[in-house]
Design brief:
- The complex is a heterodimer.
- The two termini of chain A are about 50 Å apart.
- Chain A contains 29 helices and 23 strands.
- In chain A, about 45% of the residues lie in helices and about 15% in strands.
- Chain A has three domains: about 375 residues, Rossmann fold, CATH 3.40.50.2030; about 160 residues, 3-Layer(aba) Sandwich (Rossmann fold); about 80 residues, no CATH class.
- In chain A, the strands form six sheets. In chain A, strands 3-19-22-18-17-14-15-16 form an eight-stranded mixed β-sheet, with helices on both faces.
- By secondary structure, chain B is α/β, with parallel strands linked by helices.
- Chain B has one domain: Rossmann fold (3-Layer(aba) Sandwich), CATH 3.40.50.
- In chain B, strand 3 and strand 4 form a beta hairpin.
- Chain B is globular.
- The mean pLDDT of chain B is about 95.
- The chains are: A alpha/beta, B alpha/beta.
- At the A-B interface, strand 3, helix 13, strand 22 and helix 26 of A face helix 3, strand 6, helix 4 and helix 5 of B.
- Bound molecules: iron/sulfur cluster (3 copies).
- The site of one iron/sulfur cluster (SF4) has 12 residues of chain A, from loops.
- One iron/sulfur cluster (SF4) binds next to loops of chain A.
């Protein structure tokens, strides 16, 4: 029940704008039956999880042999030893994975909560959810699927948030000492955390799209500018870092209301940047998370505004070195700054401008915006002559102090050959330093290691000055959801396998060899007419490339959900739309009931929708949660080599025939379908290995022969190109002669003959006995 | 630099650390003693220059002279083929590690489980995670690394070596195998 009262006279006084909702949302006009698992709790989907985990067994690679979580510790869990609480290594590793995924889910959830609370406060409960007008009728596919409700207004999202908050608390509780004991049960909870995370992300993004006028499922969302070279340094420059767009929106609004929009550059790093360009296309994206140090040290930003998530913990220190005032705006990241929320804006501005305070915590984003703008206008002219990066002479001088101790290289996550570059730079040759710029993830560890105090990261950036100036790219602003009509058009070709796959490049920027590899992979698959989706930092990296004619990938490929499309859905929380698209294929194209029907829909997606996630630079706990959400839906995820540090993989065993049978839903017979998809979570060592893996992981049991032939064609072609041979597992992937790509027929037939291959049938595949239509046949 | 500190300084693993191979003869003895060794060749082996050759050239010699089956990770199979060595398998590093941890697995050549897995030319941190998986979950498989950096997660590792010492060691290992 919901009611609103404009004004009420009571014995306590006058109450205005009373807005009350009681109980669960009424579902007027929604006739879909409620499925078996509305608002699932920790163990509701355990059977589905265990079904997946039986096929994709966790392989643990402990990052540390010890546990030190309680005062019994440290406990050595090496081999089959157990800790003082009785836990063994597999359970401990899966507990760490659960912790990471729960942190990730909590982070997106708290972000969603802040957005919804603010919108409720300003717009009331009745603000309608609108993510794409008439083009999007299934506006919240994940919420429908998981919760079994259909939210119509922002107020309706509160019930969802309360459910999610309960679940995250339960998940966290399960990691306590002496709680969950079994690794597979931990893993089931990891999948639960991932699903909860997906709902939280959906809440966050549909709320902000509805309330702030972001592009609504728009394939032609504007192209916006990206890169350090795009900043007009003649203007005062604000940098906003983080993920929660609220302070950025208030800054943009303040500038507009005061006629200052064209006088100040608003620039951003990480998902805040993505989301503010969805609000105002004139805002500029600097780059992914790894650009924080280099941009701060460039001296270009005159004021830094921090919100939440993935912000370097030394931002204040770095900013102080540059005499750049910092404004913290989130209670989750107070950065040790004094709380000035109750002070007048003028007073705070005066202190920041005079350098009396290096920063301020302002937990009122409207005031924070006012302070940021007024401060930047005053400090920028003073800062304009502030020279920061070392000159070439200084590079040579600093490099000359290097003793070749190699401690920098041994601290560098990418093992970059810094000592060699220093040796050359000491002789005035900067090319090696410059070359490292692309592969440097901007972590600063080398500097902390250097006994000579050489500012290594700054020296690298100084050597790459020309390249930095040329960082002028375009990225399509995050479009949000996928339209229902787009799903209707491609649902069939995807499910039949004729569009070879949907490849989603998501996640952070902890790349092994630079972000360019993401752009190259995106183009490889878009060119092959896969549907390529991007989000978050990966969406930015995909933009940082120009072809010979100067086009960026987003200019080369259309932004629609179609074969050969390259579409940026938006920030981290927009990842929900990628899972949402897979779910909508089941609902809109296949007319399956979504409502509270998780298992059936996940089974559908797993067996039919050839989607793969690639988190090439996955670093964060949020990325862990996002991946977990994909796994529960049966969507495989490939990470880069650094992703092996998530400490466990979910790997199938292609060599075990018994692992790869499904039910034929028509007869209930168990049918061998081959190892498709082979893995649910796997780290690739190189871009080339990843590309081949992605092509293979797009195969599904439901592929028609025509579809399988197309998929095999790409897999074999990529394998030949990168590995130099035909893949040895062809016999496991060909079901009938009709599956063989025409142009490869003789080669493939030879391999099949040599292997003793025989044909097998293509079933109507399902892992669930509940989906068998003819029950008599069940064995 | 301490010769048995992890190459990446923070990669301290735990109480059980790799024994250091101080002489080529030790490596040879380990290989000779193994019933069914396996060599896992990583992507960097085709990039890392060792003297006038690439690391991969030494690994090819080792595999050929020792009759050791080879797994190529990433795209290094192509580089092996160019050197007339057909790898027994092309697999991701984590994939081969999981197979090795299965005591019932018949090995890359179907001749039974491997009891020694040698690694070279993978990114340091990936080698560490993969070796950790084997240390904990493959008690029947011993691991040895041939990179010129110390890998605490292995059963046996070379120490942090200069290029010159590394070349000498690799050459000796290969020559001794010939005998
Ligand atoms: S939680 Fe268990 S394994 Fe960890 S330190 Fe405590 S007793 Fe040891
Ligand atoms: S800042 Fe760059 S060069 Fe320095 S350790 Fe990090 S990645 Fe390596
Ligand atoms: S740590 Fe410093 S002194 Fe040592 S090699 Fe690196 S740059 Fe040179």
């Amino acid at each position: 029940m919901h009611f609103a009262i404009k004004e009420l006279n009571t014995s306590l006084g006058k109450i205005r704008d009373l807005d009350i909702s009681i109980g669960r949302i009424e579902e007027e006009g929604w006739t879909d039956p409620v499925g078996p698992t509305p608002f699932p709790s920790l163990a509701s989907l355990r059977n589905w999880d265990l079904t997946l985990l039986q096929r994709y067994r966790p392989f643990y690679m402990p990052f540390c042999d010890l546990c030190c979580l309680c005062t019994y510790g440290k406990c050595d869990l090496t081999g089959d030893k157990r800790g003082a609480c009785g836990i063994d290594m597999p359970a401990q590793q899966s507990r760490m994975v659960l912790l990471a995924s729960s942190i990730g889910a909590a982070t997106h959830l708290s972000h969603a909560r802040e957005l919804v609370d603010r919108i409720l406060e300003r717009n009331g409960h009745q603000k309608p959810i609108d993510v794409g007008g008439h083009n999007v009728e299934v506006e919240a596919p994940i919420i429908r699927l998981v919760c079994g409700i259909r939210p119509r207004t922002i107020g309706d999202l509160e019930e969802v948030l309360e459910y999610l908050e309960t679940e995250v608390t339960q998940l966290l509780a399960a990691t306590h000492t002496g709680m969950e004991a079994n690794n597979l049960d931990f893993e089931s909870k990891v999948l639960h955390a991932g699903m909860i995370d997906q709902v939280a992300m959906e809440v966050a993004d549909i709320a902000q799209v509805s309330a702030f006028g972001f592009p609504r499922a728009d394939p032609e969302a504007p192209l916006v500018q990206l890169g350090m070279g795009t900043v007009d340094q003649k203007k005062p420059v604000i940098l906003v870092v983080g993920h929660n767009v609220l302070p950025s929106i208030d800054i943009i609004d303040y500038l507009e209301h005061n006629g200052l929009s064209s006088d100040v550059e608003v620039t951003g790093i990480c998902c805040t940047a993505t989301d503010m360009t969805r609000y105002s296309p004139s805002a500029k994206i600097i780059g992914p998370i790894s650009w924080q140090l280099r941009y701060l040290r460039s001296g270009i930003p005159d004021v830094v505004v921090m919100d939440e998530q993935c912000i370097r913990a030394d931002t204040l220190l770095e900013a102080q070195k540059m005499r750049t005032p910092v404004i913290a705006t989130s209670p989750k990241n107070c950065a040790g700054l004094p709380d000035r929320s109750g002070d007048g804006a003028e007073e705070i501005v005066a202190d920041l401008v005079a350098g009396k305070a290096s920063g301020a915590l302002i937990l009122d984003s409207v005031k924070a915006a006012q302070v940021a703008v007024q401060t930047v206008l005053e400090v920028a002219p003073e800062r304009s002559h502030f020279k920061v990066l070392p000159s070439t002479d200084m590079i040579t001088e600093k490099a000359g102090e290097c003793t070749q101790c190699k401690l920098c290289r041994r601290s560098c996550p990418n093992d970059l050959a810094i000592p060699d570059a220093m040796k050359a730079a000491a002789k005035g040759k900067f090319s090696l330093l410059n070359e490292m710029y692309d592969e440097c993830v901007g972590c600063g560890r080398c500097e902390h290691a250097c006994p000579q105090g050489i500012p290594i990261h700054s020296v690298i950036c100084a050597a790459a000055q020309k390249q930095i100036k040329e960082e002028t790219f375009t990225v399509r602003a995050g479009r949000g959801a996928i339209q229902d009509v787009e799903i209707r058009q491609v649902g069939g070709p995807i499910v039949l396998g004729e569009i070879p796959g949907v490849v989603a490049f998501v996640g952070c920027a902890n790349y092994p060899k630079g972000g360019r590899e993401v752009a190259e992979m995106c183009m490889e698959f878009a060119h092959r007419r896969y549907i390529v989706v991007t989000s978050g930092c990966a969406a930015m990296s995909a933009a940082m490339y120009r072809d010979d004619e100067g086009h960026t990938p987003y200019e080369m490929y259309p932004g629609s959900f179609e074969a050969g499309g390259l579409l940026n859905v938006g920030s981290c929380v927009s990842n929900a739309h990628i899972a949402g698209a897979a779910v909508k294929i089941a609902s809109i194209f296949a007319r399956r009931n979504l409502r509270a029907n998780y298992e059936e829909i996940a089974d559908y997606v797993y067996n039919r929708v050839g989607a793969v996630g690639v988190a090439w630079g996955a670093m964060s706990q949020k990325a862990a949660a996002i991946a977990s959400g994909f796994w529960r839906l049966g969507i495989p995820v490939v990470v880069g080599p650094h992703g092996s540090k998530y400490r466990r993989m979910l790997l199938g065993r292609a060599d075990k025939k018994e692992d790869w049978s499904v039910f034929d839903a028509r007869s209930g017979e168990r049918v061998y379908v081959g190892p498709v998809p082979e893995h649910l979570f796997v780290a690739a060592e190189t871009k080339e290995e990843a590309a081949v893996m992605v092509a293979k992981l797009c195969m599904r049991p439901n592929d028609t022969s025509k579809g399988r032939a197309i998929k095999l064609n790409h897999y074999i072609d990529l394998h030949k190109r990168y590995m130099g041979t035909l893949p040895s597992d062809i016999p496991l992937l060909v079901r009938t002669v009709a599956d063989i790509p025409l142009t490869m027929k003789s080669d493939v037939l030879n391999i099949l003959r040599e292997s003793g291959w025989s044909e097998h049938s293509i079933p109507d595949p399902t892992l669930l006995s509940s989906q068998i239509r003819e029950k008599k046949g069940v064995r | 630099m301490g010769s048995t500190d992890p190459w990446m300084i923070a990669e301290v693993a735990g109480p059980r650390r790799a024994s250091v191979i101080t002489k080529a003869e030790v490596a040879d003895a380990i290989i000779r003693r193994a019933r069914h060794p396996l060599l896992i060749v990583g992507s960097l082996s085709a990039e890392i220059e060792v003297d006038d050759r690439k690391l991969i050239d030494y690994l090819v010699l080792l595999a050929q002279k020792g009759g050791i089956p080879v797994v190529a990770t990433a795209q290094v199979g192509k580089d092996l083929l160019e050197r007339d060595l057909t790898p027994d398998r092309q697999m991701a590093a984590v994939d081969i590690a999981q197979r090795l941890a299965d005591p019932l697995w018949k090995g890359v050549d179907g001749k039974g489980p491997h009891d020694l897995a040698m690694f070279a030319g993978l990114p340091y941190y990936l080698t560490q995670t993969v070796l950790s998986g084997l240390k904990h979950f493959a008690p029947a498989v011993k691991t040895m690394t041939l990179d010129n950096v110390y890998h605490p997660q292995a059963s046996w590792s070379l120490s942090n070596l200069s290029l010159r010492d590394w070349v000498t060691t690799l050459r000796s290992i290969i020559e001794n195998l010939e005998e």
